[in-house]
Amino acid sequence: MTRPYEYDLVVIGAGPAGEKGAAQAAYFGKKVAIVDRLPTSVGGASLNTGTHSKALRETALSFSGLRQRRLYGIDYSLNRHLNIRKIMHRELAVVKTERAIITRNLEHHHIDTIWGTASLPDPHTVRVALKQGGQRDLTAGIILVSTGSSPFHPAGVPFDPLRVLDSDSILRLEYLPRSLGIIGGGVIGSEYASVFSALGVKVTLVDGRERLLPFLDAEIAGRLRERLERDGLHFIFNTRVEKITSSAQRVRITLSTGQVLNVETALFAAGRQSNVEGLGLEALGVALGQRGLVLVNEKYQTSIPNIYAAGDVIGFPALASTSMEQGRVAMVHAFELHYKERVSSVVPLAVNTIPEIAMAGLTEDECRQKNLPCLVGRAYYANNRRGQIIGDTDGMIKLVFSPVEKKLLGVHIIGEMASELVHLGAHVLADGGSIDAFINSIYNYPTLSDSYKYAAYDGLGKWNELQEVR
Of 71, 113, 294, 367, which residue is most buried, by most CB within 10 angstroms? Predict the structure, then answer.
């Protein structure tokens, strides 16, 4: 049977959503092409900037001696002229390896790769301004837009590559600044604040809200703030930036309170905007939201039925993990594959601060807002043998659960390995299980995972007390 179009599917953007969406369709026999600007763009922000920032975090832990200081009381003094790029050798190797893995996956599924800049002259044509010159039109029954996002630049902020930076350009710093002002206490701002503080930089974080990372459980966010303040990080909340000017040596930040910060470097972590410029989506009638967000339904279908979108380009939660699933679900729907038909309702989140934070499910605060009765069980790394061995005595696992059937409602972790440990709780949440799942399990000893059992026992004690009162 002759195809009405050259391809069944053309994907724009080879990040996590694009790669997995393309592979999903190709796995079921569809003819697929994927378009991206450069071979070095493969992997999207997750690989090309996310890996850098996470590698910088590991570099901070290693070169600052933070772990060693907590274990042995060793004082590490960093060379002020430490070259950040030169010490991140491991990150370069990881990026190179991951890029090769993604390329092999595309080749394995016989997906055509075209390098160039894409636009959509009509709903079934992807026009590519080819990297090597010239133009090529690709026709397709289905188009998946997965072009990702970029740092948002607020009007009036004089960004430059040396003094006033965004979350991408800060990764190109050559040397550590003595002082850093960070505007924005979201995930990106908090992660960089903790990393540069660990590296010995004098960091001040400014945010217009009342507290750090308001989507987190308030107790967990509070423990993070206390830890970071103890390590020398300074916070200013409920305050906006009124004006920012920079010179060859300094950045001057004027706040709404009248306070003035003079720092060597400033980072504006003002969120991100979707990479839709030049695609021509609005001219086609594809509905867009603020900052270029592509609006989609629950199957990741845009207002043009054969055009889908997934990943950072559609906004929250903008995680590589969910982006991959969105790409797969979108293509299952597009080609009626009846395979993976939805993204799990339980989405584990991780914040790569120092210390790590991870969560899944409801927070204690959300339960109160929803008038949903809950109890809490806690376990502290300080009481855990592995926690003592690794020197992390600030960590904690917090379980939020129903006082009726002990059903787990949320899991919240701060401390070493939080982003790994959270999946134990996420699986119980997804299965609709109770805290008894942890009590009835056996964990290797000594391990941090064993803290789940003691958090559950702590919760069980409170549950028993409630039964006695009743």
Answer: 294
- For 65-137, where are the alpha helices, taking DSSP H only? 66-72, 84-87, 89-108
- pTM reported for the whole predicted model: 0.90
Euclidean distance between CA atoms 276 and 255, whole angstroms: 32
What homologous superfamily does CATH list for 164-270?
Answer: FAD/NAD(P)-binding domain (3.50.50.60)
Helices marked H in 169-208 — which ranges? 187-198
Distances (CA, A) of 434 to 326, 363, 439: 28, 16, 10
CA atoms of 47 and 99, how far apart (whole Å):
8
Q: Is the backbone of residue 285 left (phi > 0), alpha (psi -120 to 50) or beta?
A: left
- Alpha helices of 88-175 — where are they, by DSSP H? 89-108
The distance of Cα 140 from the centroid of its chain, to the nearest Å, equals 31
Q: How far apart are the first and last CA of the chain?
A: 70
Which candidate, 469, 425, 468, 466, places its Cα nearest to that of 443?
A: 425
Tokens representing residue 181 in the block? 């002002």
What's residue 68's pLDDT? 45
- The residue to which tokens 């008894």 are assigned: 436
Of the options 3.30.565.10, 3.30.300.10, 3.40.640.10, 3.30.390.30, the CATH number for the domain spanning 355-469? 3.30.390.30
pLDDT tens-digit readout, 313-337: 999 888 899 999 999 999 999 999 9
Higher-scoring residue by pLDDT: 434, 97: 434
| CATH topology assigned to domain 7-62+83-151+273-334 | FAD/NAD(P)-binding domain (3.50.50)
What is the C-alpha to C-alpha distance for residues 15 and 249, in angstroms, rounded to an integer? 37
Q: 7-62+83-151+273-334 with 164-270: one CATH topology?
A: yes
Strands 234-236 and 349-351: unpaired
Helix (H, G, I), strand (E, B) or coil at 129: strand
Mean pLDDT of 130-147: 96
Q: What are the domain boundaries of the chain?
A: 7-62+83-151+273-334, 164-270, 355-469
Distances (CA, A) of 438 to 201, 377, 396, 408: 41, 12, 16, 10
